[in-house]
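>> received
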Amino acid sequence: MLTLKDCRIETVRDGYLLVDGVSLTMNRGDKVAVIGHEGTGKSTLLKAIADPESIPYATCTGTIIRQGRIGYLEQDIAARWRGVDIASFFVCEKPGKPPKIDAYEQLKHLPKALAKVGLEGLDIDETRTMDTFSGGEIVKLGLAKLLMREVDLFVLDEPTNDLDFDTILFLEAFMREKDRTILFVSHDERLLDNVATMIVHIQRVKKQTEALTFVEKMDYRDYREHRMARFDQQHRIAMDERKAHAKRIERWRKIYQRVEHQQNQAVREPERARLLKKKIKSMQAQKGRFDKAEAEFTPIPEAEERIDLHFEAGVGLPRGKRVIDVSLPVLRVGDKVLARAVDLTVMGQEKIAITGKNGCGKTTLLHALYETLKPREDMRVALMPQDHDKALSGLSPLSFLEATQDRKREADVRKRLGALGFEREDMLRPAERLSGGQKIKVLLLKVVLDRANVLLLDEPTRNVSPLSAPEIHDMMKQFKGTIVCVTHDRSFIEAVFDSLYRLDKHGLTRL
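>> returned
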């Protein structure tokens, strides 16, 4: 189905190495998960495989052998297809390109595909454009587009982004089907646990200057244990080698110093001096062998840098403070009524998660809460929206975080971005050139710098690597303020939140 041989990807502009030496073979039924911290090149690798023309910013060398038809679900469908009508989305490979010959023939499979993702009855002849759908609905449309085609290899970049629970469970079952071949990137730890049969782990080590890739044919749970065991074993071997070497060198040094002293004392004993000189030469040769052995030691494994992000001391609210107490007779978008009788009371330091089907009004509710709370002077409210590109307005991280006018603040922001894994070049890149996970980190840092004590978060863990997720979870868990969060991230919900609510047309229900 797919073979990669020594694939290497680097950026065109600065020669920055994203991926180095990836080799793997995928057969029918394999479920290969690509993991790694944000900005390590996971999405670029998938694009190089599925659609090489979509990465003009990078070059890919090595060998890629594709067999059969590839179906690619991109990470940010909305941004690419913004303003395109839904009918064109289903029949065209790319925005602005004419349909392929067999595109209309494939449309006969679309009603069944739409039903599978919970969009039965959708009329694709309407003039509605892609950007009028919710984030989850757009992902569903992308999945339906792949399902209606006879795809041999599914390449999925963050397929659970913005999906509701029902669709996530459908997607999981779909991916697990025995003969289905899947290459995917996902932040969803449960999906990784339940689906992956092979892991491709892209790492950056040596202060982000060197790329490493590990390919292991095992599931994600086993890989986590294997990775830790491998790290511990390699570290133990490396340290034992160096400890034994240090002892050898110390013994050698003491003997060498003694022989050298004896030689200095044997100036009037030519024969003894000659023998001592010969011994010194022998010992110098021995030191050369020690140096050669040292150059071949097992490398000390370098752990990937953990992200360092936390709220400052003193940021929070009293537990007994009534932060939110709203009663909305109706929740609507334009003339469309989404829900009725939406009542919500939230206290200080309470953390609640809101779920619900795509399009039910969760994002609309968050924005309504923000408009209600924003004028209050007894709290600092931050809204982290679902549309990251719109929030960042194309600005670089430094510009967005307002760090370009004050040197002291710029130094602080650079230090904080560095702790999140940003290189100097990343800090100056426009938002559209950042990875999805990097955008999340910038928005989270904005919340921290603003010292917000009420957080309204819309899918804050989407695009965040599972390797970074534990730090994000811990950050939110330790937060002494109030959190209202729209999320369908199962691990996130279990790790952080006190209460779970479902929004539907009848209002909010505590589960």
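>> The first helix runs from residue 42 to 50.
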